[in-house]
Predict the 3D structure of the following.
Amino acid sequence: MPGSSALPADLPAAAADGTRTLADTYGRVARDLRVSLTDRCNLRCTYCMPAEGLDWLPTEQTLDDDETIRLLAIAVEKLGIRQIRFTGGEPLLRKSLEKIIAAAKGLRTDEGRAPQLAMTTNGMGLARRVHALKDAGLDRVNISLDTVDPELYARLTRRDRVTDAIAAIDAAVAAGLSPVKVNAVIMPGINDHSIGDLARFCLERGAQLRFIEQMPLGPPSQWKRAEMITAQDILDALAEEFELSPVDKPRGSAPAALWNVTDGTRSGEVGVIASVSHPFCGDCDRTRLTTDGAIRSCLFSAAGDEVSLRELLRSGASDDEIGALWAAAMWRKKPGHGIDDPGFLQPDRPMSAIGG
Ligand code: SAM
Ligand code: SF4
């Protein structure tokens, strides 16, 4: 129902001060907002984008800075969001990123604190901006690096820029944006031999590696359920080179299962995100805002499940009206992504336009 303003009859009413939570009918409450700041990117990772890129969204359809900041304020101050992750596309391509981060840091959550601010980035150009971003209020970063091998990185991202990605990780560690996390998507026959190298690279730097199971969100030819590298495959590969033991703390809504890893000299934590083989939808506390102003209650929402806030925002609606439509979009959130259901359909929007 993109753009519809019909609210479900069973949607819980707002409190007298207009505040609501982003609850759904399965008892989950969204506290973590993923905001896509652009659908554009300067890399072309094979599992995410075709070589020629995609049809970028026209500027008039995307939210400008004021619109973005207003929706962040509604999310944090009226809807119970406590953590924001900026993503894309490549969020560093948004020139006003520091301004948006500073505005978000000035908000106050329902607990009276500034929201936690994180970013997922490919790191291109981060080394130059890391201090400005930290000063603006950025708390943490995840930097994507699927291999440390320069030739393989160039093939995987179709750009010869592994040095920039490594410089970004080093700069983020030096700036104290800790814990610095490194995201690695593992694909069969492509970088599954890089698992140990990536773990060693992160242990040496004190960065936390996050292995991510590849999901059906990029070019359809790039993902086959029967051939994908699962979390168990990743753990088996790690166990050949490292001692592993589960981290002994409650996981809560975190997508990664955490493992203590040591090579006898260095120790650290590695996370494995088993979105496909062991979905964690029952504990999901996330909601997503696309760069063109649509709410996606799930990464895998179908086009028909998206709710656009943009027209309401541009029609002079009040914060409470916008908050009510956002709450309605979350109220209808499905119980899970259904990747293993026989009728599963890959979302029309690519990952870069949803916000990973
Ligand atoms: N451009 C930034 C980056 O690469 O970090 C942010 C956007 S990217 C879509 C966010 C994360 O999604 C990255 O860590 C990327 O590796 C991951 N990703 C992209 N396509 C994916 C897929 N098909 N399956 C699993 N993860 C994917
Ligand atoms: Fe760009 Fe990130 Fe997609 Fe790679 S994964 S093409 S860096 S948006």
Observations:
- The radius of gyration is 20 Å.
- The pocket of S-adenosylmethionine (ligand 1) is lined by residues 41, 47-48, 87-88, 90, 120-122, 144, 183, 185, 212, 214-215, 217-218, 351-352, 356 (CB under 6 Å).
- The chain has a mean pLDDT of 92.
- The first strand starts at residue 22 and ends at 23.
